[in-house]
Amino acid sequence: MELKIGECSISLLQGDITRVPADAIVNAANSELRGGGGVDGAIHQAGGPSLMMELNRIRPHGGCPTGSAVVTKAGALPAKYVIHAVGPVWRGGGYDEARLLSSAYAASLRLASEKKAAKVSFPSISTGAYGYPLDKAAPIALRAVYSFLRDAKSSVREVVFVLFDRQTYRAYEDALEALEGA
Ligand code: ADP
After folding, report:
1. Which residue, 21, 88, 102, 105, is the most exposed by fewest CB within 10 angstroms?
2. Which protein residue has the closest C-alpha to ligand 1 atom 1?
3. Rounded-to-5 percentages of helix, strand, coil across the chain
4. Distance from the alpha carbon of residue 75 to the mean position of ligand 1, in angstroms
5. Global pTM value
6. How far apart are CA 129 and CA 111, in angstroms?
7. How many domains, the chain?
């Protein structure tokens, strides 16, 4: 499934993000940037130790704030860069989670553009261990990317959401249909 925005597109794929070639792969990291489970674990596993070595050099004092991102090279992954984005932990919705989630996507795309990336892949940030409800997160993720592609002058032409399981894919499919119809 694909949505066109001028010369740009947003598409959805079900699968493992470490297997999909892109210029920049976005990771759903934690603010310590020390690796973890889920997609973070898979990206470090597939990318190799050079990612963590670079993170150890660039890790901001006190960690990477929620809603922001840092970039490293991609090691053995089929990409040039990995963008480590920190989404919010779901705490019921009254703690600015929506703005922070949107900000994690926008910050990632700004970094991708700084690196002149044309194709960027995203996982579903915050909807695993961080507990963000899928039906709320999917429209926010898609809207954030859509707004960036529509409004920003950037190198990014193609955004692919690589969604690990059927349920996540379905939620994004519904949200993309709603965005298309809006
Ligand atoms: P968070 O802590 O931001 O919630 P998680 O990694 O726990 O991050 O989950 C985010 C999403 O990434 C979930 O939908 C999870 O199923 C998915 N995921 C896990 N492994 C992969 C992978 N290899 N490729 C793409 N998505 C993945």
Report:
1. 21
2. 126
3. 40, 20, 40
4. 20
5. 0.98
6. 24
7. 1
